[in-house]
Amino acid sequence: MSAVTVEATSAAIHVSALHKYFGENEVLKGIDFQVDAGQVVCVIGPSGSGKSTLLRCVNRLEEPTSGQILVEGIDITDPETDLDKVRARIGMVFQQFNLFPHMTVLQNLCIAQRTAKRRSKAEAVEVARANLAKVGLAEKESAYPAHLSGGQQQRVAIARALSMDPDMMLFDEPTSALDPELVGDVLAIMKQLAAEGMTMMVVTHEMGFAREVGDKLVFMDGGVIVEEGDPREVLADPKHDRTKAFLSKVL
Fold this sequence. Notes:
Layout: H1 3-7, E1 11-22, E2 25-36, E3 40-44, H2 51-58, E4 66-71, E5 74-75, H3 83-87, E6 90-93, H4 105-115, H5 121-134, H6 150-162, E7 168-172, H7 180-195, E8 199-203, H8 207-213, E9 216-221, E10 224-229, H9 231-236, H10 241-250
Parallel strand pairs: 3-8, 3-9, 6-7, 7-8
Antiparallel strand pairs: 1-2, 1-4, 4-5, 9-10
Helix pairs in contact: 4-5, 4-6, 5-6, 6-7
């Protein structure tokens, strides 16, 4: 076991010297980043800053060009690592809801439980119903995604991720595709998860959420972390000129 593995096992996510190229374009330029267990880390920045790419590298949806990523002490950049086993610990919620349109809400929540977790139908249904109740959609289990609002579909997507019993949740701009009046319901569920101690990495434009719920705020621009710290301090008194310029446009 390498020194960094031993040193970083207390972290839920530990990223070292991460680089990511798309062709000639270097999108991540040597990122060092950490999320501690039980921590809510919000990542902000302009479009194209690399924040979603960083998030997607954390569960290897994007292949890092170089660097190391440890998830609960396990090096997921090591070719020997069982990626599926590690991914089973990580819930992922995307900007788009990615629900199967031909399946009911309940079926959407059960399918990965049955295939990846090998749960019986009865157990999968029980877990799915508990998580639908958690996101306030118990009465929608027989509905199809097309009959739900965007906010309801995103809450179903969160319930689906929770049904896999993850140790941590990654959110990639989960409210940016929603009408403004539907954002609050989704953020309320995320606040509830944070209050329950769920480890969360959240790429977001919701500064109010970051201020209220975040333990750490990370501002990215041009493929690097420009500034990070307590969300209330960074938002009220950013130290870097680039952070000041960005926040002057979004606050």
